[in-house]
Write a structure and sequence with these properties.
Pfam families: TerC. Keywords: Membrane, Transmembrane, Transmembrane helix. By secondary structure, this protein is mainly α. Helix content is 71%, strand content 3%. It has a two-stranded antiparallel sheet with strand order 1-2. 35% of the residues are buried.
Length: 314
Amino acid sequence: MLIWVLFIALVCVFLALDLGVFHKNDHVIKSKEAATWTAVWVTIALAFSGVIYWLFSDGLVENPTGLTPGTAVLKYVTGYLIELSLSIDNVFVIAVIFSSFAIPPIYQHRVLFWGILGAIIFRGLMILFGVTLINRFDWIIYVFGVFLLYTAFKMIKSADHDFNPQNSFVFRQLKKVFPITAKLNGHDFFVRRMGVKAATPLFVALIVIELTDIMFALDSIPAILAITADPFIVFSSNILAILGLRSMYFLISRMLAKFRYINYSLVIILAFVGLKMLFSHYVHLPEWVSLSVIVIALGAGIIASLMIPEKSTD
């Protein structure tokens, strides 16, 4: 329990330093700054694998699945890469939301910061629920496997690029709860208008992003549970990936059009972990196989995007 408290405290320190020190003043996040912070978060996450090895070596954390230190590290890194890769699709949706509500770049980091806080809470609850289900009911892993395969199929068939947040169910319901003003008031989420407290587009974007993240978590958390049911590994890999999502958004959101084949990489990853869940009681793949599939799928998507010329629309 102490390890969990220390990890959550460490995350709170990271968040406090982020908003209270490094991003105290609103400013536009340039590509160079975003690349630097992305490198920092990835380095922290990968360095944490050393902490995972130490914790499982000395028995400082509960080990309900009986993992060896080396296996625990492989599962942690694999889970982290799964969450990071599936976040790429989330980045596109966030970009659409910001564009739809005309959120200036100078305030986007603030919205994402508060969105991260909510995501940590909701994902923590979803991970606890998912791990409990898998540990109590063996058959639930088949349900997760079928769900991931369906998600992979839907990702191929659906046209997510047509998503319009202002036509969404969430936005329509939010308008019934709060008066919504069309104008921004600096970085404020609410403003007084003729004596009435109204939500600004900043708050609306925050809520839509928050609920969208929950929908994405329905894919990513079962995918990580296909790798391991150890609660600390699932939670730590997921949260550290989320912490780096903000800087990664500012880094790759401007380049999404170039990586048009990444979507197929995500389909392969989801299909692989879905099949792994379905055959988990019959086929036991070494940990390095899962890690290799994820790396190769992402690498192939990036290389194909860069090497294959885009078809002319003429």
